[in-house]
Write a structure and sequence with these properties.
The chain is mostly helical. It has helices spanning 2-18, 23-72, 77-88, 108-118, 127-142, 150-163, 165-177, 185-188, 200-206, 220-240.
């Protein structure tokens, strides 16, 4: 909505320039600019408040199911809330350009796998099943990093949820090559950016085949931002929820 403020200002400014030769019109127009900007800010503020209220209602609506399965799999329910906000903004019918669906943005292939394991039928359609499946899937990622400390393990798990554990394993492999810990997110995250085809010289040093075991990876910025955003929200929610 801040864009709305800029658009209004820009349109009014164009009118101002076109009428600059008429000083009487200029005075009135400057007043209109101020009024237009003030109104736009108020609209944006109102929109944000409305949006926050909708978000709060959805959090309350799904809080019981989130708390139930977060507890079952050993997570703080507020972390799951932060993850859902990052994934879908609590929009039940959210769908990504690559086919991920629902509150937890689960991919079709992942949904089929979890359906077999949990005996769920409508992960992609029913929000509560989607939440349960998402928490379970995060737990599966969590199990990949048993040697990491709790906080680092959670961050690595979130990264795995976003881009797949294989790419995290490959980044860990490079961290080990550089004699760094592969159980600390801050040590692993820089090497997500070194899984591109253009990093072939490094790959020759790390893998006998000369390429990452789980393939090249170009979505590293999204994954790094994903973990950072969720963690910041989580720390905030620990204080207010």
């Amino acid at each position: 909505m801040l864009r709305l403020v800029h658009i209004v200002y820009f349109l009014l400014l164009i009118s101002f320039i076109s009428c600059k030769k008429d000083m009487n019109k200029t005075t009135n127009l400057m007043s209109n600019i101020k009024t237009g900007i003030t109104d736009s800010i108020q609209i944006a503020s109102s929109y944000n408040v409305s949006k926050q209220r909708i978000m709060a209602k959805r959090i309350i609506k799904y809080k019981p199911i989130i708390k139930k399965y977060a507890k079952r799999y050993g997570f703080d329910w507020r972390l799951i809330v932060a993850q859902i906000i990052q994934e879908s903004g609590f929009k039940e019918k959210a769908r990504s350009r690559v086919g991920a669906s629902g509150l937890m943005q689960i991919m079709p292939g992942t949904a089929k796998e979890i359906s077999r394991e949990l005996e769920f039928e409508y992960i992609m359609k029913r929000p509560r099943e989607n939440i349960t499946a998402g928490i379970y899937h995060l737990y599966k990622q969590y199990r990949f990093y048993p040697e990491a400390k709790r906080e680092e393990r959670l961050k690595l798990s979130l990264a795995s949820y976003n881009c797949g554990a294989g790419h995290i394993f490959d980044a860990q492999k490079i961290a080990t090559y550089y004699e760094l810990s592969n159980n600390y997110w801050n040590d692993v995250r820089p090497y997500l950016t070194m899984l591109k085809r253009t990093d072939w010289q490094l790959h020759l040093q790390v893998w006998p085949t000369g390429k990452p075991r789980y393939g090249y990876f170009y979505g590293y910025n999204e994954t790094i931002q994903y973990v950072d955003n969720i963690w910041k929200m989580y720390l905030s929610y620990q204080k207010v929820l």
